[in-house]
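Supplementary Methods S3. Complex input for the zinc ion-bound model.
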Amino acid sequence: MKPAMTEFQYRCSRCGRAYGRDEVRYLCPECGRSYRPGTPLAGVLEVELDGASIARRFDRSRPDWDLFSPVEREHYPAFPAGGTPFAPAPRLGERLGWPNLWIKNDGLNPSGSLKDRASALVVAEAARLGETTIAAASTGNAASSLAAVCAAAGRRAVIFVPAAAPRAKLVQMLVCGARVVRVLGSYDDAFRLSLEYTRQRGGLNRNTAYNPLTIEGKKTAGLEIFAQNGLRVPEAILVPVGDGVIISGVHKAFKDLRAAGLAERLPRLVAVQAESSAAVHDYIVSGSFRPADSPATVADSISVSVPSNPDLARRAVLESGGFSVTVSDEKILEAQATLAREAGVFAEPTAAATIAALMTDEARRRLDPGWQVVALITGHGLKDVEAPLARLRVPEPVPADFSALPAEPAEA
Ligand SMILES: [Zn+2]
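Predicted complex, serialized as structure tokens:
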């Protein structure tokens, strides 16, 4: 049986040079030379699939999504990433003003975040290359995901996280047996240290965008939305943005679908950032890049000073006819509660930022109420229970005696 994957080459997103599959692993060798820590990555590579070849082999009645994968299925770890629910949220949608609001709930991946998609693909590539160690820097989710996938695949995960990463995520990494290095510094410091680690000690680096397969792994979220939506393109998809890789992956999904003649257009992509961590948003709006001064947001997964992938994120928004928006921490926590109470979905603050975005004037102005709008929920709420706890009142215990039950509260 021949593998379902499709021939591809890497193409540099900056200079346009093409490279064979085994010629490069990370950045464009030419453009990557100008990369300095503390700046966005230079020369991020994109996988260029042969759309015509996919078009010839794709059967709409029996879709084979492996045709869009740059790694053969035989190398994939025994780890069920993806395949998450895509469902309408009518109560939430009515309340926010988009009755046709849908939720792609990637918090229901095995490790609780969308990052499992990228981790699984990178670990598949490690298997193909015969690499036993995979290293990564992460704000938390990519690391806990990599730890889980490596555990399933029998590979070694070495993880660099900022010391302030939420405890639940740290516990996830440790319980899966990863080697965890807690860095006294920011995510950006952890990123730099992990690059140094693989340069000096070898192994495969999973850093987001630095390893081009992270974009391809995240792409599968977009492919799934299309598949679960009856091979139709929704009008808009809201995506939380930190480094800008998930939104680039979703963009890539629809570009690949279009190149294969399956999608007639791109969905408008809406980049959502936290107010204090808005380097990508500022870049989209102004066209000139500047790091975020001191990111400090409750949405820890998108708390980034120097995003690794602002160029592709900006392109995703502009080419798709979308826009970007920032939201305050207060709105994020309000949205987290609204999403839970109106749709039963407990999302981490980062993921709830997509719902907070739907509460902005910008969204009301730019997104038609008749459109099918999709919120991409990227992480589970149990990842960080401290953040919502501050807004909740935990009831006092009562004796186990019916007569001691407090009176019923008035209906809200
Ligand atoms: Zn280049």
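The two ends are 61 Å apart (CA to CA). The chain has 14 helices and 13 strands.
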